[in-house]
Design a protein that fits this description.
The chain is mainly α. The protein has one domain. 64% of the residues lie in helices and 2% in strands. The chain has a two-stranded antiparallel sheet with strand order 1-2. The protein is elongated, with a radius of gyration of 19 Å. 24% of the residues are buried.
Length: 213
Protein backbone atom coordinates (compact mmCIF):
# COMPACT_ATOMS: atom_id res chain seq x y z
CA UNK A 1 0.00 0.00 0.00
CA UNK A 2 1.29 3.43 -0.93
CA UNK A 3 0.91 6.60 1.13
CA UNK A 4 -1.09 9.28 -0.61
CA UNK A 5 0.93 11.57 -2.85
CA UNK A 6 -2.12 12.94 -4.63
CA UNK A 7 -1.89 16.52 -5.76
CA UNK A 8 -2.32 19.36 -3.31
CA UNK A 9 -4.50 21.62 -5.43
CA UNK A 10 -2.76 24.90 -4.58
CA UNK A 11 0.83 23.78 -5.14
CA UNK A 12 2.62 21.94 -7.94
CA UNK A 13 4.96 19.15 -6.81
CA UNK A 14 6.40 16.36 -8.94
CA UNK A 15 5.95 13.13 -6.94
CA UNK A 16 6.69 10.76 -9.86
CA UNK A 17 10.23 9.86 -8.80
CA UNK A 18 9.15 9.33 -5.19
CA UNK A 19 6.27 7.07 -6.26
CA UNK A 20 8.59 5.02 -8.46
CA UNK A 21 11.07 4.64 -5.64
CA UNK A 22 8.37 3.60 -3.16
CA UNK A 23 6.95 1.01 -5.55
CA UNK A 24 10.45 -0.42 -6.12
CA UNK A 25 11.06 -0.69 -2.38
CA UNK A 26 7.61 -2.26 -1.98
CA UNK A 27 8.46 -5.13 -4.32
CA UNK A 28 11.60 -5.88 -2.31
CA UNK A 29 9.63 -5.75 0.95
CA UNK A 30 7.02 -8.20 -0.39
CA UNK A 31 9.78 -10.68 -1.21
CA UNK A 32 11.31 -10.04 2.20
CA UNK A 33 8.01 -10.98 3.87
CA UNK A 34 7.20 -13.92 1.60
CA UNK A 35 10.63 -15.45 2.22
CA UNK A 36 10.15 -14.90 5.97
CA UNK A 37 13.49 -13.13 6.09
CA UNK A 38 11.99 -10.71 8.63
CA UNK A 39 12.20 -13.44 11.28
CA UNK A 40 15.99 -13.31 11.19
CA UNK A 41 16.42 -9.69 10.09
CA UNK A 42 13.58 -7.66 11.68
CA UNK A 43 15.21 -4.39 10.60
CA UNK A 44 16.09 -5.64 7.14
CA UNK A 45 13.65 -3.32 5.35
CA UNK A 46 14.46 -0.23 7.35
CA UNK A 47 15.09 1.80 4.18
CA UNK A 48 11.52 1.18 2.99
CA UNK A 49 10.07 2.15 6.35
CA UNK A 50 12.17 5.31 6.50
CA UNK A 51 10.98 6.21 3.01
CA UNK A 52 7.36 5.96 4.20
CA UNK A 53 8.14 8.25 7.14
CA UNK A 54 9.79 10.84 4.89
CA UNK A 55 6.84 10.84 2.49
CA UNK A 56 4.42 11.42 5.38
CA UNK A 57 6.61 14.23 6.73
CA UNK A 58 6.97 15.84 3.30
CA UNK A 59 3.22 15.88 2.70
CA UNK A 60 2.56 17.46 6.08
CA UNK A 61 5.20 20.16 5.59
CA UNK A 62 3.90 20.91 2.09
CA UNK A 63 0.33 21.27 3.33
CA UNK A 64 1.45 23.54 6.15
CA UNK A 65 3.48 25.65 3.71
CA UNK A 66 0.37 26.12 1.58
CA UNK A 67 -1.73 27.04 4.63
CA UNK A 68 0.79 29.66 5.77
CA UNK A 69 1.31 31.02 2.25
CA UNK A 70 -2.41 31.60 1.77
CA UNK A 71 -2.66 32.99 5.30
CA UNK A 72 0.07 35.50 4.52
CA UNK A 73 -1.57 36.44 1.22
CA UNK A 74 -4.96 36.96 2.88
CA UNK A 75 -3.73 38.61 6.07
CA UNK A 76 -4.95 42.04 4.96
CA UNK A 77 -8.54 40.74 4.73
CA UNK A 78 -8.81 39.38 8.30
CA UNK A 79 -10.55 41.31 11.05
CA UNK A 80 -9.56 40.56 14.66
CA UNK A 81 -12.25 37.92 15.14
CA UNK A 82 -11.38 36.10 11.93
CA UNK A 83 -7.66 36.27 12.77
CA UNK A 84 -8.23 34.59 16.14
CA UNK A 85 -10.48 31.91 14.66
CA UNK A 86 -8.08 31.08 11.83
CA UNK A 87 -5.02 30.98 14.08
CA UNK A 88 -6.87 28.58 16.37
CA UNK A 89 -7.75 26.29 13.44
CA UNK A 90 -4.14 26.30 12.22
CA UNK A 91 -2.78 25.46 15.66
CA UNK A 92 -5.27 22.64 16.10
CA UNK A 93 -4.35 21.03 12.81
CA UNK A 94 -0.64 21.32 13.68
CA UNK A 95 -1.30 19.50 16.95
CA UNK A 96 -2.91 16.67 14.98
CA UNK A 97 0.06 16.62 12.59
CA UNK A 98 2.46 16.39 15.53
CA UNK A 99 1.28 12.83 16.13
CA UNK A 100 2.29 11.83 12.62
CA UNK A 101 5.68 13.46 12.00
CA UNK A 102 8.89 11.67 12.90
CA UNK A 103 10.58 14.67 14.46
CA UNK A 104 8.34 16.69 16.77
CA UNK A 105 10.67 19.60 17.57
CA UNK A 106 10.15 21.50 14.33
CA UNK A 107 6.34 21.56 14.45
CA UNK A 108 6.43 22.31 18.16
CA UNK A 109 8.58 25.36 17.39
CA UNK A 110 6.24 26.48 14.60
CA UNK A 111 3.20 26.00 16.83
CA UNK A 112 4.85 28.06 19.57
CA UNK A 113 5.69 30.88 17.16
CA UNK A 114 2.12 30.87 15.87
CA UNK A 115 0.60 30.91 19.34
CA UNK A 116 2.84 33.47 21.01
CA UNK A 117 4.03 35.58 18.10
CA UNK A 118 2.23 38.47 16.46
CA UNK A 119 0.50 36.74 13.57
CA UNK A 120 -0.95 40.03 12.34
CA UNK A 121 2.63 41.09 11.58
CA UNK A 122 3.49 40.25 7.96
CA UNK A 123 7.21 39.98 8.68
CA UNK A 124 6.63 37.48 11.49
CA UNK A 125 4.29 35.45 9.29
CA UNK A 126 6.79 35.47 6.42
CA UNK A 127 9.54 34.28 8.76
CA UNK A 128 7.46 31.28 9.86
CA UNK A 129 6.46 30.54 6.27
CA UNK A 130 10.11 30.64 5.18
CA UNK A 131 11.03 28.06 7.85
CA UNK A 132 8.23 25.71 6.84
CA UNK A 133 8.96 26.10 3.14
CA UNK A 134 12.64 25.37 3.74
CA UNK A 135 11.71 22.27 5.75
CA UNK A 136 9.33 21.07 3.03
CA UNK A 137 11.90 21.61 0.29
CA UNK A 138 14.61 19.91 2.31
CA UNK A 139 12.48 16.81 2.83
CA UNK A 140 11.42 16.73 -0.83
CA UNK A 141 15.02 17.06 -1.96
CA UNK A 142 16.01 14.15 0.28
CA UNK A 143 13.23 12.05 -1.21
CA UNK A 144 14.38 12.90 -4.73
CA UNK A 145 18.03 12.19 -3.98
CA UNK A 146 19.13 15.78 -4.61
CA UNK A 147 22.65 16.64 -3.50
CA UNK A 148 21.54 20.11 -2.40
CA UNK A 149 18.63 21.45 -0.39
CA UNK A 150 18.59 24.69 -2.38
CA UNK A 151 16.20 23.37 -5.04
CA UNK A 152 12.76 24.95 -4.61
CA UNK A 153 10.22 22.25 -5.39
CA UNK A 154 7.15 24.19 -4.25
CA UNK A 155 5.32 26.18 -6.88
CA UNK A 156 2.16 27.79 -5.49
CA UNK A 157 -0.74 28.11 -7.89
CA UNK A 158 -4.12 29.56 -6.98
CA UNK A 159 -6.52 32.15 -8.28
CA UNK A 160 -5.72 35.49 -6.63
CA UNK A 161 -9.37 36.50 -7.04
CA UNK A 162 -10.13 33.98 -4.28
CA UNK A 163 -8.07 35.96 -1.77
CA UNK A 164 -10.71 38.61 -1.18
CA UNK A 165 -12.61 36.52 1.42
CA UNK A 166 -11.77 34.11 4.23
CA UNK A 167 -13.15 31.18 2.24
CA UNK A 168 -9.79 30.34 0.68
CA UNK A 169 -7.81 29.91 3.91
CA UNK A 170 -10.65 27.94 5.54
CA UNK A 171 -10.76 25.60 2.54
CA UNK A 172 -7.00 25.00 2.69
CA UNK A 173 -7.10 24.27 6.42
CA UNK A 174 -10.01 21.86 5.93
CA UNK A 175 -8.12 20.10 3.12
CA UNK A 176 -5.17 19.69 5.50
CA UNK A 177 -7.48 18.32 8.24
CA UNK A 178 -9.09 15.91 5.76
CA UNK A 179 -5.67 14.70 4.59
CA UNK A 180 -4.59 13.93 8.16
CA UNK A 181 -7.83 11.99 8.73
CA UNK A 182 -7.24 10.06 5.50
CA UNK A 183 -3.66 9.36 6.54
CA UNK A 184 -4.76 7.97 9.89
CA UNK A 185 -7.19 5.63 8.10
CA UNK A 186 -4.45 4.56 5.72
CA UNK A 187 -2.03 3.60 8.48
CA UNK A 188 -3.26 0.18 9.71
CA UNK A 189 -1.27 0.35 12.94
CA UNK A 190 -0.10 2.68 15.65
CA UNK A 191 2.26 4.95 13.73
CA UNK A 192 4.16 5.85 16.88
CA UNK A 193 4.99 2.15 17.30
CA UNK A 194 6.51 2.16 13.82
CA UNK A 195 8.49 5.30 14.56
CA UNK A 196 9.86 3.69 17.69
CA UNK A 197 10.65 0.45 15.84
CA UNK A 198 12.69 2.15 13.12
CA UNK A 199 14.51 4.43 15.53
CA UNK A 200 12.49 7.64 15.44
CA UNK A 201 12.28 7.98 19.19
CA UNK A 202 14.72 9.22 21.83
CA UNK A 203 15.19 5.66 23.07
CA UNK A 204 16.10 4.18 19.71
CA UNK A 205 17.97 7.05 18.05
CA UNK A 206 21.31 5.46 18.89
CA UNK A 207 20.33 2.35 16.94
CA UNK A 208 19.23 4.24 13.86
CA UNK A 209 22.43 6.27 13.72
CA UNK A 210 24.58 3.14 13.95
CA UNK A 211 22.36 1.34 11.39
CA UNK A 212 22.67 4.08 8.78
CA UNK A 213 26.31 5.01 9.32
Amino acid sequence: MEPSTSEIEEVSIDWSQVKQRFEFEGVITEEFLENRTWIYEPHGRLDHQLLLVKIVDARIYCYLAVVLHVYEQQLFTFDEQALTRIQDRINKVILVALNLVAYKDFLMLISSELMFGNMSDVDHTNDILAKVRTKANGTLNELNGASTNEIDRLSFNFDENQLSTNDMIMKIIKDFEDYLKELKRFLPFDYNVLLNFIGMSPYSSLFIRSRLS
